[in-house]
Protein: Endonuclease
Organism: Rhizobium chutanense
Amino acid sequence: MREIIYWILCAFLTVAIAIVSLRYVTNFWLLSFLYSFQVHFGVLFVAASLIILAVGRQIYGFVLLFVSVLLVAHGVIMLREFSEDGKSADRSPLFRLMSFNIAIDNWKNSTAITDMVVASNADVVNLLEAKPLTFHLQQLFKAYPYHIGCDNGKDSCDTLLLSKRPFVSRQVASMGSLRKDRMVISSVEFGGETINLVSAHLTKPYFDDFQMAELEDLAKTLGSINGPLVLAGDFNSSVIAPSIQSFLREQKLKTIVPEPATWPAGAGVLGIAIDHIFARAPLRLTSLKRLDDNFGSNHAGLIAEFVLDRNGQTLPAR
């Protein structure tokens, strides 16, 4: 009986490992979201392998344990691939940026979110699913005189970009064919340098191959932008998802590792980072933190600080 239980458990774990490991064979959209949880699944597989070995110490159980450890180790390696080197961490920031998906039905917390944004001291604020803030726009615009989005009533209020400084350029565009106006391309001047800011809100990866099409359009946009660049928003995938990895390598984008977990917000550090803030040289992230409160959203917000390196020299802070 003990051996039967052993092989039944081995069979279930083998199938689970095979499903997660499909990422090394194909980036199938239906499983794409699972790939974001590779480290989490790997830890569960290690625990399951140990249980199997407690039932019976046979060679196949050790094989499953070894493969599970490899999944965890490679997941950690992938998470670190896009890490900034941190050499600018002790320098005064050029500017601060907040990015937060507040959740489109989060009306009851709209006042608290508005007060938090105003008090944040961020130079630029990127708000996604901003519809609940419709009745607080004037208060936000008083603190942030320059904005993009939410100009035509609540039904058009999705992405809202706020700035304390005037926009040098501004454009609202679409990615893919599923949803409109979920990419904002702008630029703002800090310390005499023009910083390009791109906000993106990607579709969930298990919605057919819509996210792949959106990433292609986003890559074309970023490829046409020269100079310091920030990309912020809700990607609905972690940096270890195969499609996101390819995109980040192509665009030479970096972040700070470990990224704060942002979803689900209630899971805290046990969640995954699907909301991101990336930078492209000569711009560097020096700080990336999760907001203390998620204000009723299922996402946690992020706030980041940046410096700009030119020929090894950091430009003075604002």
Remarks:
- The first strand starts at residue 95 and ends at 101.
